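Chain A, query sequence.
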Amino acid sequence: MSGSLQVTQKQLLHQQLEKQQQKHHYESSYYLSTKSSVSKQAFSTHKTTSHRLKTSVKTEKGQEVVKLSPLPKRAKRTYLAMDKDKEVIGYVIPVFRANHEVVRSLTEAHEDDVTEEGINYVAMRNLFVREAREAMEVKVEKKTRTKHVRESADRLELGKTMEEWSEFRKKMNPDSLTHPPELIVKPRGQTVWEGKTVKLHCTVAGWPKPRIAWYKNNVLIDAKAHPEKYTTESNYNMHSLEIKNCDFLDTAKYHVSALNIKGEVSSVATIVVKRFQEGMEEGPLDPKPHGFCPEHGVTFETTIIDKFDVAFGREGETLSLGCTVIVYPTVKKYQPEVVWYRNSVPLKPSKWVHSHWSGERAMLTLTHLNKEDEGMYTLRVNTKSGFDTHSAYVFVRDADVEVEGLPVAPLDVQCHDANKDYVVVTWKQPAVEGSSPILGYYIDRFEVGTHHWAQCNDTPVKYARFPVTGLVEGRSYIFRVRALNKAGVSRPSRVSEAVVAMDPSDRARLRAGPSAPWTGMIKFTEEDPTVGVVPGEPTDVVVTEATKSYVVLAWKPPVQRGHEGVMYYIEKCISGTDTWQRVNTGMPVKSPRFALFDLAEGKSYNFRVRCCNSAGVGEPSESTGEITVGDKLDLPSAPGAPVPTRNTGTSVVVSWGASKDVKHLVGYYIEHNVVGTDVWMPCNNKPVKQTRFVCHGLTTGVNYVFRVKAVNAAGYSPSSPNSDAVVVQPAISVPGKPTNVTVLEAVKDYMLVGWTAPADNGGADIRGYFVDYRTVKGDIFGKWHEMNHQALTTTSYKAENLKENVFYQFRVRAMNMAGVSNTSLPNAAVECKEWTITVPGAPVSLRVLEVRDTSVVVLWEPPVFDGRSPVNGYYLDIKEASAGEAGWKAVHEKTNKGKYMKVTGLKAGTSYVFRLRAQNLAGVGKPSAVLGPILAQTRPGTKEIYVDVDDNGVISMVFECSEMNEGSKFIWSKNYKEITDTSRLTIVNEGGKSRAIFNSPSLEDLGTFSCMVTNTDGFSSSYTLTEEGLMRLLDISHEHKFPVIPFKSEMAMDLLEKGRVRFWTQLEKFTSACQVEYVFNDAIVEQGKKYTMNFDKTTGIIEMFMDSLEVTDEGTFTFNLVDGKAKGTTSLVLIGDEFRELQKKSEFERAEWVRKQGPHFVEYLNFTVTPECDVLLKCKIGNIKAETEITWFKDSIEITEEDEEAQKIERKDGELIFNIGKISKHDAGIYEVHLRDTRGKDKSSFNLTEAGYQAVMNELFRVIANSSSEIQVVSTEHGIILYSMITYYDENLRVGWLYKDAKIAASERVKSGVTGEQLWLKINEPTEKDKGKYTMDIFDGKDGVKRVIDLTGKAWEQAFEEFQRLKAAAIAERNRARVVGGLPDVVAIQEGKSLNLTGNVWGDPVPEVCWTKNDRELLSDDHYKLKFEHGKFASITIAAVTTADSGKYALVVKNKYGKEAGEFTVSVYNPEEEEKKDGKKD
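Chain A, predicted structure.
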C-alpha cells in the first residue's frame, strides 16, 4: 500500500509540474548603490533572469543541502527538488510568480518609492541652484553596471561644479544682504475626520528666498507625482501643504524644511485623522451620490435629521436609537429600505434587537443591554437612487456588582468546531477585573428543553477558550461564562447562540437541504463489499491547542472505514518511555476532536489515535511527536505609550502603539484616570482591535491620564505606560470663513474693504486675515490675487493701487494657530471711483469682552474713512436678537468719544445684537455690521480682577482663569489697549494666575485695566482704578510698609451740655505701653483749667474736653500716639466757617442750658390737624411750677378767661393745646404763649398768616384727601352718579375729575359738585361713549390724591342697566293714567236733585275712562250720563238722585303704563225722613 501511495504522489507532482510549465515566470530584484563625496544617493534597478536557481532542501536525515539547478538558461522552470539521480525529493516554493506586466509595474513602483526616499537630501541641497537642479534631475531607468559606474564619475565632476557655483553665488550675495531662513509662523498640528481636507500653513522669512520642502515621517512629499493627494502652494512668504481626502494612513508627523545658502530651519506638526472604525476602503456604509431612478422617473434625495448621538447605557437597561428620515419626492406606495448595522455588520431582529420604521422615524431598540451591544451603530437608508447613512457609537457600562470587588461578567461567548460530542467555547475577558486579578472562569451549559444549568469545569480555567466534551449527539446547547477572583464569582455573561452537537458534514447537509425533488421512485444499487472492514489509521494528528489545563487533538478520519460510522480511541505516551496508555478506555469518541485533561504541566507526551468499528480496532496513526504541556499562547506584550489628542468638549482621541509579537489578539481596553486620583475607569467595555479609540463621556475641563492593555485568549497584557495628562477641550481647527465682505469706501485709486470675523474661531484666537482681489468686466472674472502678505489684525483693509473705473471683487481668509480658513464669499463687484460721501464710514472690528449676566463691554475700531471731517464720536445701538428691526434702541444719548463702552442693564439669559455708527460734523454714518448674537450670561468659572497689597506694600492686580488651554496667554490692557510699556506695570504669570504689579503707583495709572485670556471662550475681566481707589490703595500700601496704630474711629467732636466740646477717638489695637500726646496747632497742651484729658485703656477711648470755644481756639487738634515702633496720628481741623458754626452751636447750647433752668418750651408751638379736620395749636412745656404764669396771645392781644377763645385752650400732661376747630380765615393771626416765674421766662409763637396759614390749609387738604373713600357708582333715572365720601369739605379744596386722564369740562350733561361730605360727578343720559376710566383728583397740598374707577365691563353694564330701568320706571310713573283732581271724597245730596261731578284725568297716551258704582261699571243712559272731553275731563251726571243712588263710586282711568281709581262716596238723603228721625230722638 505504501508503494502505491508513493507512485500516486509522484504522478500528482508531475501533473502539477506540467501545469506550472505552461506559465511564464519572472524573478525581479533590485539593489541600491550609494557612493558620493557629498552624501548624494542614487539608485538604479536591474532586471535579471535566473541562470541558475539556488534551492535549499532537507533530506530524510534532516541535513540541509544547497543545490544549483542544472536546467539550461532557456529551459522551462520546474519547482521539483531533485537529488543527483534526478529523483524528486521535494517541492520548492517559487520566489515570485506573476506575469510580466505585474512584475514590471511592481518593480517600477518600488523603485519610485526608494528613489523618493533617497533623493531628499540631494534635492534640498540643490534647490536654490537652477543649473544644479537640472543637472541632478533624478530619472528612474534600468541601467547596466558600466553605465552606473560612468554616471558615478559624472556625479563627482558635478560636485566640483556645484562648489564652484556656490562660491560664485556667495560673491554675488554679500553676507550683509543675506540671512538664514526663519519660521515666523510654524505649522500647527491638527486633528481631522476621515475624508476631510486639511492644510498646514507656515510663514518663512530669509534671503535669498528659501526653498521649501515638506516631509511625511521624514520622507519627502512629491506633490507633483501625487496631485490627487497633495497640493503645495507658495505665495510670497506663506507656504501651505494641502492633504486631500484624509484617511487613517495620513496620521503622521509632517515637517517643513526651509533652505537657502545661509542655512536651514525646520518645524514639525502632527496630523491625526479621526475615525470610529477600521476600514480605509469605501465600504457598504460609505455614502454615495444619489442617482436618477428610471422606474419612478425621479431622483430620490434622502435627508436624515434628529440624528442620534453618542449614547451611553448600562447592562440590563433598554436603549433606543432613532432618526427622522425625509425622502423627497414622496412616491405613493414606495418606502425606502432601512437597515441598521453594528460595526458594519447588519443587525438581525432578535429578542435583544428590535427595529421599527414608521415611514418617517427609524427606531432601533436594544432590550436588556449587554456589553456585546457596544459598538458603532449605523443607520442606512436605501432608496432606488442611492443611500445615506448616519453613525454614532454606543457605550455599554457594566451593571453594578452585587458585592464590592467582584469582577464583571465576561462577554461575547461563542461556540466553535462543534461535533457530535464536542464543542469549543470561547469568550472575551471583561474590562474590569475587580479588586483582584481574575483567577479563572467557569463555563456553564444548558441543554435546550431542560430547566437547569450544569457547570462544565470544576477547576476554573484561565485560558479564554475551553473544549466542552460529553455532549449528546443531536441535542442543542447554549453556554455562558462566569469570572472568578478572590472576592467571588461574577454575574454570568450573556448566553451564546444555541449549537447542535452533530457531525459537521451532517450540519452542512442539513443547511444545504434536499439535493433533488422527490420523484416517487426508489432505486437500489449494490454496495461495495466493505462491510466488516476494519478501519484504517487516522491521518494528520495534530495538537490544535495546548494550555496548562488541557491539550486538544484533531485528526482526519481514515480513508478506509466502510459504510458504518467509526469511533476513536486516543492513546498517550510519556516521553522517554515506550508504554502507550489508552485515555478514553470507557467510551470511544465520535468526533475527530478530543480534549485531554489532567496532564502534568511541564512534561512531554506523544499522542496517537486508533479507529474502531464493529469489525475491530484499526492500526494507530502516526504520533504527534513530543508535546510539552503548557501554554502555547503567550500573554500579549504591553502596548506602546498612548497619545491623547483633544477631540470635543467631552471626548479625547487616544492612539497607541500596537503590542509587539502578539498572537491571536482579541483587542485592547482603554482606561482613564482623573489626575490626582487613583481610580481607573474603563473607556470601553468591549475590546477594540484598532490602535486608536475615541473616549467619550468625559468631563469638560478635567485633566485625564490614559493607559491601554491588550488581551488575547491567554489573558491581559501589562498596562502600557501612562499617557501625558490632557485637558478635555474641543480640538483646535482652522477658523470658519469670514462673512459680510463689504466695500466701505471707494476713492479713485483705493477702496476700503470691511468684513465680519468668523463666528467659529476654531477654538483659538484669530491671528489675522488675508485679502484677495480680482477684476470683473461684465461676465468675465479675472484671477484672484493676494493683496497683503502680512496678516491683518483688523477686520478692514485699505486696498491701494487700484485702477479707476474698474470693477473689483474681494474675498477674505482668517488665520489662527491651526492654519488658514477657506475663503469667504466675495462681495458684489464694486466700481473703483470716488464716492461723494461726507459722513464717516462704518466702524469695524466690533467685538465683546467681559460678558456677564447683566453687562457686556463692546469694543470697536474707527472707520477707515472719516468723511469730510474727523470722527468726533460714536453711537452704540442694541436690540434683543429675537426682536425685529424696530427693536433697535440707542444705548446712550450723548456721543461716546472712546473706542469701547460698557453696556449695563441686560437681562440674564437673553441674547443681544449690537451695531455702531460714527459721527462727524457732517452727520452720522451708516451702521456697522451687526455683532452677535451675544448671550448675556456669566460663564461658569469666571472670576473678576481683584487688587492685592502684600506685606511689603506692593500693589498688584490679580486675575485667575481655570480654563487655560494649550497656547492660552494673559493679555493685559489699559483702557482696552494692550499694555506694551512695562515701565508702569510688571506682568507675572504663574499657571492659571496672572499678576500685574504697579512699579510706582501714581495718578498716571488711573484708568480701566482689563485682562483677557486668549484661546478660551472669552474669559476676561476689568478693574477701574479711580483716584479715590488709588489713594486708598496707597494708604493701605503705606500702612503695610510702615505699621501704624489702627483706629477704630478717627478723631471726632461732640457738643455736650452747657456748650462743652469733647474731642475723642478710639483705638482698635494697642498695648498698655501706648502713650498719647495732645497737640493744638503744633503746640503740646497739658491738662489744666482749659483742657481736661482722659485715656481709658480698657476701651481704647482717648478724650479731651474744653468748657467753651473762644476765638483763639480756631485751628487743628491732634492726638499723636506712640506704641513701641508703631505710631498713629489723628487730627481734626476746626477753621473758618466750620469753626464759627461750631462756636455758635456751643454758645447756643450754653444758652439753652441756661434757659432750661427755668420754665421753658420742650417743643415749640406748632400745629396739627386731627382726622376730624380740627386744627390744633400745640406745644410742650417743661420745668413748670404752680406759680408759673401761662399766657396766650393772639395778634399781641392777651386771651383772657372771659373771651370765647379761652374755651378753646386746654392743658394736658405738660402739653398746651389751642383747639381752633374747623379753620377759616377768621382764625388767621399770630399766636403766642408766654411762660414766666421767678426763675425765668420763655416764649413761643406761631404765625398763622400767609405762609403759616397756607401750610395749615395744605395739611388740612391732605387729611381730607386721604379720608376720601373709593369712588362708588349709583344710577338714577337721569343718569349715573360717581361719588366719594370725605370727612369734611372746605370750600377752598380743589377737586378735579378726569375721563381717560383728560380733564372733564363742565356741561349740562356732565356736572360735578359737592353735597355735604359727598363729592360727586353726574353723567346725565350716559351712552357707550361714557365708558372708560374716571379719576377724581383731590388736592392734598402737594401733588394730589387720586381715586380711580374703571367704568367698563361689568361695572358699566350694571350701572347702565340700572339707569335704563330707573329711567323707564320714571317715564312710566310720569305718563301713567291717573286722576289728578276734581272729585270730592264724600258727596251728600238731597233726594230728587241732580248730581254732576267732573274729574281731571292725566295720562300719555290718553287713558281709557270708566265709572263704577260699588265696583260695578256704569253705562251711560238717561239716569247716568257719562262724558270724557278733551282727553282731560271726565264727568258724571246723575239725574234726580234717589236713595238707591247712594254708594261707593270711582272714576277708573287706564293706559299702558297703569291705571288708577279716584274714589268718592255719594250719600242721598230725604229731608222729611231726617226730621222724623230727629223728632224721635227728642
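Residues 319 and 1123 are 77 Å apart (CA to CA). The longest helix spans residues 145-172.
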